[in-house]
Specification:
By secondary structure, this protein is an alpha/beta fold. The protein contains 20 helices and eight strands. It has an eight-stranded mixed β-barrel, surrounded by six helices. It starts with 17 loop residues before the first strand and ends in a 6-residue tail after the last helix.
Length: 419
Amino acid sequence: MPSTTVDVTTPTPVQQVFVARQPIFDAQDTRVAYELLYRATREATHAHEGPPSQPLMCGDTALHAMLSIGLERLAGGTTAFVNMTEEHLLGGLHKIFDPRTVVLELLETIDGTPAVVAACEAAVAEGYTLALDDYDGRASLDVLLPFATIVKVDVLDRDPQALAPMIRGLLARGLVVLAERVESHEMLSAMRALGCTLFQGYVYSRPETLGGRTVNVHQAAIFQIMALLNKPETPEAALDEAFRSHPSLSLSLLRLVNSASFGGRGVDSIPYALRVVGREALSRWMLVMLAVSVSSRSAVAHEAVLQALVRGRFCELVTARGANGDPGPRFLVGLLSRMDTLLGLPMDQVLDRLPVSDDVRAALLNRTGVHAETLRLADAYDSGDWAVVDSLGGDAALSALYTEAVLWAHDRLSPEMPS
């Protein structure tokens, strides 16, 4: 870590800090980074907002919060794009981060004043990589371009041909152009054709991204077993036979039961494994298996599965903490809320194949019922919509729950862990 004059031990407290993340992909659809979204006060709805007299204090607390949570954990071992206000930059708050792990994303409110230019020059000399957020080509930013490596261009509702001259000019300077808020495959293709090599946006959460709308044999087997598990009258012998008909699932079940999480019991038969795990826990595990079965298709699919697992665990943890419902169905709702994307099927068709309650269906199809508010909270937290998070009673503990959900999801996708 570089030396710094910033006090990293006594950040000034504020009401709460929220930290979430959004993935960034390269031209080969490989996730290469996460942008970390944060907000430091209840009054602020964006990272750079806050009480006018306390901008540095709020930023100090938010950045320290990210450091204490752990950038490596939040960013999954990849690069973290960290939003920087002018106050952050001039106050040297970025120095609490190792320059090898972050990209300093200078927000669109920053202009190329002499003080900002000097701070950018110093940051680059210290080894930091700079990105300009929401670049719009205004002349006051020209003096910052020599210090930037990446320039982010907001392409939402923009004509690619209108953007072309600006993007070509940036590329001619040797800059990497990141197209953000990409919401359609047509725009993604157009931006690739113009030379953009980094991308961010809702397009990576759309069902068609993952390709294919057929359920494979492995997934069909999971649907079948989940249907059997949901019927109390299903005899153990029928479940045993269902697993034996699909050896890969049998091996996965035995691996799960023999893992440390179940005490490493040395179980070597399917009937005994079913009794050890229990039907409710097994049904949950099968749902995770259904999601994970998609992850090998592509890097985009892997990221979508990770997001689904994070959402499921986040909804479960929020419910368990507040005691305002049953955590089990909330996990189901959170995970299934991305299952249409994972399987490339409309949500109603996904639910027709799964044994879910009317309350779960109402939440997923209509965003109504007893689970709807928790799902709305997960949606808002995912997108960094802090005003909605506030309206739903979000508090500082959510960042810890979100981080726990991220770590849990990464564990479930690790090849060393039972899925």
